[in-house]
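Researcher: Please translate sequence to structure tokens.
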Amino acid sequence: MVLLNFRSVEMKRSIVQDGQNGTMFAVQHSLFCDIYRDLSPRQHNICRNNLLLMESVIEGARLARQECIKQFNNERWDCSSISGKSTALGLMTKYATKEAAFNYALVTAGIVH
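Model: Translation complete:
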């Protein structure tokens, strides 16, 4: 069992939420990574092998959502289709749109940052 400190995790619904307070979670590798059925087998392996790095991934996704909302605040598309609840990162879409491309770029930049 690994003890993780995630600032924005709600285990049952989505990794990305708008919570501000830190919360401690005791998570088994398989439980944490297997909750999300939308991850590919390769992504599950990456998650299991790098569980301690998942906090950075989660924080990067949270930053991406905040930046998307900030950048498109007064636009027709205001990130409202990014509910934060649909996938493991809560930010992905099935459709190849310019908004989805922008969102993927933000998530990647947020994680790398």
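Researcher: Any highlights?
Model: Residues 39 and 77 are 27 Å apart (CA to CA).
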